[in-house]
């Protein structure tokens, strides 16, 4: 996925100006995006469907791979945020560094990532990739409210696509956002039609897709903008291969 700068588009229709994100954050997003298919297809990875276990596996894999391939950062599972909330994954510098006139120590995330299953595990959580209503457990919603990544203008979301196509989810999520904008579905934060997902970039061979969205974020009385990079990985590829191998072995035994 080729990352885009915030200033590339005229999102000034939402805010008067946008702050460019640091290059290391964009490079970290590219690294994660490139590693997703390798992680999914890793023969040593136990097959899992539950989100917490997938998050833990992915963090272990990214942290291990980064040591050799992307040594500037390390990855942590369950990074604490506001209150008792935590975001699924974070990337931190391996040593203190200054990025855009700000000092980041080994304790400061340069990027946080929220992960969601597609579809959600239950019907009452159907729109959780976008919003959780009054529960405030929606992926995009938490970034808009500043509950996750409050000090960052660039964040990412990972979608574990366990059913349907990535194009199906791109359409579905944009429909959910449009419903929030029209008031057909109520929420604790305001939504704008300009916050829908941008066109999808898809690698069919790898079962990989990505897109971007930009959102108004209100923290207290101040309002700014957060850019979200959406990285989606089709998770059923490896299981289909396993089932095929099992059937092949059974056929040979019979």
Walkthrough of the structure:
This protein has one domain (10-248). By secondary structure, the chain is of the alpha+beta class. The N and C termini lie far apart (46 Å). The model is unreliable at 3-21 (pLDDT under 50). It has a seven-stranded mixed β-sheet with strand order 1-2-5-6-9-8-7. The protein has a two-stranded antiparallel sheet with strand order 3-4. Helix 1 crosses helix 2. The chain has helices at 23-40, 51-69, 139-144, 166-182, 236-253; strands at residues 73-80, 86-93, 97-99, 102-104, 111-118, 154-161, 201-203, 208-219, 222-234. The chain is built from five helices and nine strands.
Helix-strand makeup class? alpha+beta
Number of helical elements: 5
Radius of gyration (Å): 19 Å
Choose one word for the global shape. globular
Low-confidence stretches: 3-21
Helix % is 25-40%
Give the beta-strand count: 9
Task: Average the pLDDT over all residues and give the rounded result.
Answer: 86
- Strand proportion: 25-35%
The oligomeric state of the chains shown is single chain
Q: State the major sheet.
A: 7 strands, mixed
Tell me the strand order in the biggest sheet: 1-2-5-6-9-8-7
Order of helices and strands: HHEEEEEHEHEEEH
Distance separating the two termini: 46 Å
What number of structural domains do the residues give?
A: 1
What is this structure, in a nutshell?
With 254 residues, the protein is an alpha+beta fold. Helix content is 31%, strand content 26%. Strands 1-2-5-6-9-8-7 form a seven-stranded mixed beta sheet. The protein has a two-stranded antiparallel ribbon with strand order 3-4.
């Amino acid at each position: 996925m080729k990352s885009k700068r915030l200033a590339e588009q005229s999102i000034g229709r939402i805010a008067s100006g946008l702050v460019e994100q640091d290059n290391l954050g964009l490079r970290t997003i590219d690294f994660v995006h490139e590693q997703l298919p390798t992680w999914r297809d890793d023969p040593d990875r136990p097959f899992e469907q539950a989100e917490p276990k997938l998050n833990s596996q992915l963090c272990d894999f990214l942290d291990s791979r980064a040591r050799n391939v992307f040594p500037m950062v390390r990855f942590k599972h369950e990074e604490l945020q506001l209150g008792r909330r935590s975001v699924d994954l974070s990337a931190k510098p391996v040593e203190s560094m200054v990025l855009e006139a700000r000092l980041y120590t080994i304790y400061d995330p340069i990027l946080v990532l929220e992960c969601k299953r597609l579809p959600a595990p239950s019907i009452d959580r159907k729109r959780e990739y976008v919003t959780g209503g009054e529960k405030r457990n929606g992926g995009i919603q938490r970034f808009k409210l500043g509950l996750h990544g409050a000090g960052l203008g660039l964040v990412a979301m990972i979608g574990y696509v366990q059913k349907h196509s990535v194009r199906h989810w791109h359409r579905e999520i944009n429909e959910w956002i449009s419903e929030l904008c029209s008031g057909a579905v109520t929420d604790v934060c305001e939504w704008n039609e300009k916050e829908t997902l941008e066109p999808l970039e898809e690698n069919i061979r790898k079962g990989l897709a990505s897109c971007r969205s930009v959102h108004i974020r209100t923290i207290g009385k101040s309002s700014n903008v957060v850019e979200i990079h959406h990285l989606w990985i089709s998770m059923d590829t490896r299981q289909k291969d396993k089932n095929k191998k099992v059937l092949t072995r059974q056929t040979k035994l019979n």
